[in-house]
Structures
1.
Amino acid sequence: MRSRRRKTGRRIAVLMLVLAGCAAGWIRFRHAHEIPDVPTAQAHKGDFAVVVSCRGNLTAAHSVLVTAPLDVPDLQIIWLAPAGSAVKAGDLVIRFDPSKLRQDLKEKKAALDQAQASLDQAIAQARITSDQDKLDLASAKYDMEKARLEASKKAIVSAMDGQKSAIDLQLAEEKVKVQEATIQLHRKSDEAKIASQTRLRDEARAEVERTNYRLAQTELKSPLNGVVNFLNNTTQGWMNAQPYKVGDHVSSGLSIAEIPDLSTLEMEGKVDEVDRGRVTVGDDVRIHVDAFPERVFNGKLASVSLLTEQSFTEWPPSRTFRAFARFRDRDARLRPGMNSGLDIVESHIPDAVSIPAKALFTTHGNAVVYVKTKQGYIARRVHVRARNADEIAVEGIEPDSIVALANPEEQNKA
């Protein structure tokens, strides 16, 4: 009885070991044939654009500097347009303190009024003197004619009276000559006084006009449509340079702000030396502005610099060509200085099957793509037709295939 129990226990133990082994084998089988959970993407067929990509920023081909007036002393900013705000031609951008000039204008106008009054007085006095001289000359001529009439009676009067009449006529003629000389002297004197007063009046008027001009220069307006970009104030040294602000004193002739013309906005990028031969002026471009990732701007490659420019921002130093692309369609939100990417379309491959760049792997020196099937991921050798930074055109898989973005074989090993 006891031996039978022992045999039954042994059989149960062996059966449990067999069942455990079967379960472990089944788990290993399931794990070996289970489809790994890796990210995927779908291949698509269509026009594939081969591009040369580069980075850069937006810049304006034409901009105007707003400078402090040259003939206005003691300039102090009391108002500025908001930095980066859009302005139209004629809009106020900067206003300087006009209080000192307004006080000067009142004084200049008072001096002008006094000079004008002095001129009017000189003209009136000259007119009075002229009228008096004309009267005196007329009186002298009357006396001369009267003396001539008396002298004409010489034949019928005594010799003494005749001699006296001749002397009186001579004296009367001399008085006329003296009066004529006096009139000439008064005229020249009055003309000199009027000229002097006129000069003083003109000087006072010029001072008023100059002050009015200076007062008008205390308000600087935008010469074109654009955005306001205030420059750095370096009067306290380059280490303490900051954009101009309200309260700053400005020297005459210094540039205070820059207003770029948004209609001339373009993309400036740096093309590597190895890619220079692949691009041509007139190529289609796609501009990606970092601030607006949801939109792609189309345009044309306008120009490429003839010489390279060396940059020391990285090591080893690099040499690049400067390329400029013009927008075909614009957006009012675009501003100079925005970081952006530039894709220069080198060529087009029609009806190409393209996949994400992450979906291409290298196995034993061959380019492969892991295509998802019902049995799992199958490695397919492909031929790379063209390669971009994010997409690759390949041959060897069907359109709409689901491809893995991570190596499923490494996933199985894990």
2.
Amino acid sequence: MKDGLKKVKTQFFCQNCGHQSPKWLGKCPSCGEWNQFVEEEIRGTAPAISSEFQFAGSPLPIDAITADEKERVGTGIAEMDRVLGGGIVSGSAILVGGDPGIGKSTLLLQVLQCLAERDMKVLYVSGEESAKQIKLRGSRVGASSTNLLVLVEIALSNIIQQIKELSPHVVVIDSIQTVYSSALSSAPGSVGQVRETSGTLILLSKKTGIPVFLIGHVTKDGSIAGPKVLEHMVDTVLYFEGDGGHTYRIIRTMKNRYGPTNEIGVFEMRENGLQQVANPSAFFLAERPEGAAGSVVVPSMEGTRPILIEIQSLVSPTNLGMPRRTAIGVDHNRVSMLVAVIDRICGLHLGNQDIFINVAGGVKVDEPAVDLGIVSSLISGFLDRPIDSGTVVFGEVGLTGEVRGISQMETRIKEAARMGFKRCILPRTLSCEIVPPTKIKLFRIGTLRELLECLF
């Protein structure tokens, strides 16, 4: 090797999940994707952080630091404020992910318009669309304020320069996978570029106090594309959920350093953009059939919000050697376990039955509180006996058929009473001190055998 020439160190990175390997692999051992490994340069030393991004502070006693929880900026959209924990915190970095075309850019453009209407200067940086395309979307959703500035740029240095010159109140980067740093030789969207550009923008946000929204692409399984460290670096991670066959969209908080996690905001996609749904329970139960066997309503907690959802079951004799088990919106393994418990404890033999379970509206629930609702729906469908339409059911079911208590039962009961339900079947455990609203009657049970007595 000639003097003055340094050997370039490289590693192979999976462009789908960021898994690192010293050699090329056909299949990623982390995410299982094929032909995703790309060779990227590895710098021997970490890049020096510019002095303008260094805090250069000194240790302070924690009681000498002033901070107020009320120092938040409301977005003007109540559902968005809910998932953010009450509003935008100064200097926070917020990562927004979701499937292509689900409405990430549309929602953030609406958020910027609401802020711009309150005389706040906001900056929308796009590396995927031209200024005319953004203007067309803005016209559709009503974004026309002079305080909403649009910048079409992918060079990180130019973006930082514009942020310093404009000093906006909020910045949106759409998307972080398109931003390019000249410090690296790899292409935009690679693992190294995403790590470098996002890290620089987050440091700038902390230094200046300007909140930054980073829109991120997702992989085939729905996770944020790029290195997993990106989700650890930001303060808040929001995921957009939705189904192309439904008009609703759910934005869910997966991580929040300034508020509760697993909080959701419900929106409806319309011609003029995303409109917030103030009463999700009524929205999801709007098309519920009356007097149908296999249908039951369950109060589910999404963060701090109770939402009433409908669970439907279809149980029919199988014509195959192996009965089918299909579950949409709930865990397939948990359904199989509950079928076995019903067979053993209740004496209802479902082993030779095809079972199909669906959470109406395309909602996904994973808390154990829906166990009793799944069991009630299966029993109703198997016996072909409808459950009273004014009944809600919730509780966790154990392997011995016991019905266990769950959290926030009183909140669920109040939501059911507010929606006009008259009966509530709930666990006896932890519910003795609950005083129900006058419009709803409680049926406390301890086993599945007692459920059969109260259900019909």
3.
Amino acid sequence: MDKFIIEGPTPLKGTIPISGSKNAALPLMAASLLGESATELTLVPKLQDIYTFNNVLRVTGARVDFHEKENRLVIDPKNLSFPEAPYDLVRKMRASFYMLGALVGRTGRAKVSLPGGCAWGPRPVDLHLKGFEAMGIKIDLQQGYVNASIEGEEVEGGEFTLEPSSVGATVNLVLGAVKRAKKFVIKNAAKEPDVVLLCNMLKQMGADIEGIGSSELTIRRTEKLKGITFSNDPDRIETGTFMIAAAMIPGSDLTLTGCKPTDLGAFPKSFQKLGVEFDIDDTTIRVRNSNGINAVNIKTDIYPGFPTDLQAQWATMMTQAEGESKVTDTIYFDRFSYVPELKRLGASLKVDKNKVTISGKTPLTGASVMSTDLRASVSLVMAGMAAEGKTEVLRIYHLDRGYENLEKKLNSAGASVTRVTDN
């Protein structure tokens, strides 16, 4: 199992290109199964979750060719004949559950294992299943699998309100409805860029979807969809992560290229309060920390609010801000596994239910730390870059799921991050 050895402190100076979004790519990959011909996706990051989902698709009989040097993925569903997603693959990542909607949409039936993924938080799929039942799809749970089926070629549809709003459930229901439901309305639909991108891709394939970007989506059945060439979006969470990493360490002057700032929602407003120099120019973002940072409270919310996927990084940065700050997560109440690890480095944090209070500024000193999920992992890498001396970050396989070439990108901007095999 690999680990990172980080020598700090190291300001970030230079330029880092932003990779394609993992969270956006996975729904696009699932949607590719709905076409009558091959779909080519560009700007697909080389990440473990992408490789895993490629294998999930291959199980069905679809042909998947990943041209890694070009970050280009070609998915041909022509020979799809096995509408199942097995436990040994689905357990590795929750997004595999998108196969339920994609396979029902493609074949009218599906057998998909209940999902796995990061080790934090109850994230039940009940909402997905209730939505499918509201659409008219028969759902049956047997031995850890969801069996979904329809009689005939289509279902009546209807409407379903997502309480709470959910990206995953919105994606799954859209995938299931576009080729099967006469008319289906999703109320309180997620408005995240990932959902908008998926709907825009399906529209280009020939789907009939109204209300894209709003909280109410209306989907009418289209019998056939075509394969297309379509570009993934830049990763907004990677963008925010590198912005925070640069702001956290005095002396940093970091430029990020290939960004999509309009996808960042409310994040730039919170970031501006830090007091760092911060410029956005089309697809380029520059962050300079010459005078330290202010303590800034944030509260996560559904898009366009502050992303829950950036709260661990923000709390880590706040350990280096002058004064007390609070980070509240309204999406997930137990996403604070990084707190005891940051304390090992010398940080002062206190968790109360879904809120962490950070007392800064505290000097950080290198130590061995371990994480349990993707965003906690990257927050510990950031802390290691700000800490004095050597930090070991264990279980970095989490990072390989969501950050493409992380150590290479950081090292190109002046960090000292070495990957070694931990025996």
4.
Amino acid sequence: MIISDIRTHLLSVPFADPPRTGFLSLGAIDLLVVEVETASGIIGTGHLHPLAGGLRTLEMCINEMLKPLLIGEDALQVEALWQRMWQATFIQGRMGITVMAMSALDIALWDAVGRAQGKPLWQLWGGRPDPMPIYGSGCFRGLGHDGMIEKAERYAAEGFSAIKMQVAHLFTHDEDIANVRDMRTALGGSIEIMVDVNQGWSVDEAITVGGKLDAYNIAWLEEPVMADDFDGYHTIADAISTPVVGGENHFTHHDLKPFFASRKVPILQPDIMRGGYTELRVIAEHAHCAGLTIAPHMFPELSTHLTASIPNPSWLEYMAWYDHLWVEPLTVEGGMMAPPGRPGHGMDFKPELFREFPYRE
């Protein structure tokens, strides 16, 4: 399992259903795929979809700063390799590009370990392949009032027990409240509604609008203010009844320490691009000690291994963004998703993607 080669690939694959977030322009799924190969021929893969560009910068970070640290090392020592990359890039990193690049490599390393041992990651980590609840996300604000409701109703018809809609950015406060009210009316009381602000409000706005949304029994209010405004999160959590959640834009457990300490954000949503499997497992452990649960941000095909092997899982998030990319996509049945039984993370990109969809800037 000595690491003999690391290769990167940049892709730009069309969306099957382009998202309309209202604040990001996403014309294609821009991916960085990394392969870690060992001397015995085992190949593990990881990938990044950073949404807002930077693929060539991330690729350069892998090749210039991280690849030299890993070639010739034992791929089985994943946590030790994480620490080696972390310490070697501390001056330039701790967040941002370096941690995202490290995350892609970490995912690939764990995949290689699982494939070498013939075990899926959830089994390698002592978990169980029980199905986990998954909410239908992507009721994007750019779809408008009617479009958000129509998409949510499709999710409900497919057996999802929860959906996520968006507010802020494109709407006035009154429109946001009306949109949530009408979504609740359309779905009835049996479907959970998560509401995502995407960091679009001030603290005062979040308290004012969030307080009015309390009446519609929403499951959570997500990222109401900028990610680094920890005091703001805590103030909002104290002021409204709806749980306040976040974490997708935080890097590693170090960045989440204020939430572990306050325990006022009951559900954390770490993103695998901002820590890889190694840090997501550390985050889950810290969260469990603090009485918090974990609902990973996006990437359910990868995150399902985590939620199947930790004591404090909450939800998985589904947007169907990548279903057409996989050789064997995972399926949602009755609003639940189970981890694959294939070795490693068990997800392989269709080989034709690398020929047909080279990255375009």
